[in-house]
Amino acid sequence: MHMDLFHTKMKKKKSNSKEANEPELSQPNIHSLALVDASCFLGNNVTIRQFSSIMDDCSIGEGSLLGQNVYIPNGVTIGRNCQIQNNVSFYTGVICHDNVYIGPSVVFTNIFYAHLHSNVNQKRGSEKTVIERGVTIGANATIICGVTIGQFAFVSAGSLITTDVKAYALITGNPAKQIGWMSEHGCKMNFLNKTRTAVCPKSGIVYKLEQNLVRKIEQH
C-alpha cells in the first residue's frame, strides 16, 4: 500500500500566490463539534461530521467521508474515497484501503481474548486488521481483530467475521460463512456454467472462478 498517498497534512498555505495551471485543492471539511488532533494527516476533500474523534498519527485519504460519532485512534490508516458511516469505532492496527464502505455501527475489536484478569491479551492484543480495496461492510457487522478482508468482498449486515475473507466473496451470518461471489460493482455472480465464468451485468466485466478463487479476466 502506498502510504505516501494518504499523508497530506492539514495546514494552510504560507503564500497566496499560485501558478497559472495549479489545480484548486479543497481543504478538509471538519464539523465544529468534531475533535481532530493536530498531528493527524488528512487528504483533500475529507469530510468529518459532528462528534467524531480523530486521534494523533492516523491518516485519512483524499475524498473520504466520516459520519457522526466515528472514532479513529492513533495508528489507523483510512484510504482514499472511503465512506465510514455513523457510530463506527476503529482500533489501532486497522488498515482500510481505498474505496471502502463501512456501514453504521460496525464494530472492530482490538483484543482477541477479552478477559479482565487475564494476561493472554498481551500475546494477541491489537492484531492488525486489513480491509482491502473496494470492500463493503454492512451495518452492525463485527470484525474480530487479526483478519484480512479481501478486495471487493461484501460482508452483509450483522455478520460476525472471525477468519479471513476471500476477494469478491459474499459473506453473511454469525459466525459468517461464504454464500456466493460479488462483482466489483456489487452484483452477485453465478459460476455454474462449464467455463466457470460470470459477467457483471452492470459493467460487462468478466470474472473467472479457479481453485475457489475469483479473478477478473483482462479484456482487450
Helix and strand arrangement:
Elements: E1 29-30, E2 35-36, E3 41-42, E4 47-48, E5 53-54, E6 59-60, E7 65-66, E8 71-72, E9 77-78, E10 83-84, E11 94-96, E12 101-102, E13 107-108, H1 121-124, E14 129-131, E15 136-137, E16 142-143, E17 148-149, E18 154-155, E19 160-161, E20 169-173, E21 176-182, E22 188-189, E23 197-199, E24 206-210, E25 213-216
Parallel strand pairs: 1-4, 2-5, 3-6, 4-7, 5-8, 6-9, 7-10, 9-11, 10-12, 11-14, 12-15, 13-16, 14-17, 15-18, 16-19, 18-20
Antiparallel strand pairs: 20-21, 21-22, 23-24, 24-25
Describe this structure in words.
The chain is mainly β and 220 residues long. The chain has two domains: 1-8 and 26-112 and 124-182, UDP N-Acetylglucosamine Acyltransferase, domain 1; 189-220, no CATH class. Helices cover 2% and strands 30% of the residues. The protein has one helix at residues 121-124; strands at residues 29-30, 35-36, 41-42, 47-48, 53-54, 59-60, 65-66, 71-72, 77-78, 83-84, 94-96, 101-102, 107-108, 129-131, 136-137, 142-143, 148-149, 154-155, 160-161, 169-173, 176-182, 188-189, 197-199, 206-210, 213-216. The strands form five sheets. It has a ten-stranded mixed beta sheet with strand order 1-4-7-10-12-15-18-20-21-22, with no helix packed on it. Strand 24 (206-210) and strand 25 form a beta hairpin. It starts with 28 loop residues before the first strand and ends with a strand.
